[in-house]
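# step 3/5: fold
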Amino acid sequence: MKLSYRGVQYDYEPALLEVRESQSSGFYRGRRLHFPYASHLHAPRPVSNLTYRGMRYDTTAAGIQTSSPLTMEPQSPVSMPGQPVGLVGRQARLKLLRQAAEVHRTNIERSLNHRIATARAAGDQNLVQILEDEFHQLV
């Protein structure tokens, strides 16, 4: 389809989606409605691989995050022999929580070390003592 915007001609090709009727229905002003849904949607490919506070994630061209920062390693949905499937998922969640806690602790230590070094450079011994006490509480 040929269109123009402010004198610039361009071709417009609308995206084609296969739409199907769903089992969902409802009423609006006394009439029954059926809600269509797209049978397949293409997942956008990641444009950039980024790291935030030590955790990797991907973004699309629109800037949408495509994977959680906590998903560092893909987990297999297949259960180990002798273990139910739910136990594998629980272990994977616990592993991710431990990894996140470790990254968080490392970031806190790094921040405290930087603040102590800054306080020492400024010659504020009272602040240095307070920050060192905070560091010892963390350890």
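# step 4/5: annotate
The radius of gyration is 27 Å.
# step 5/5: archive (pending)
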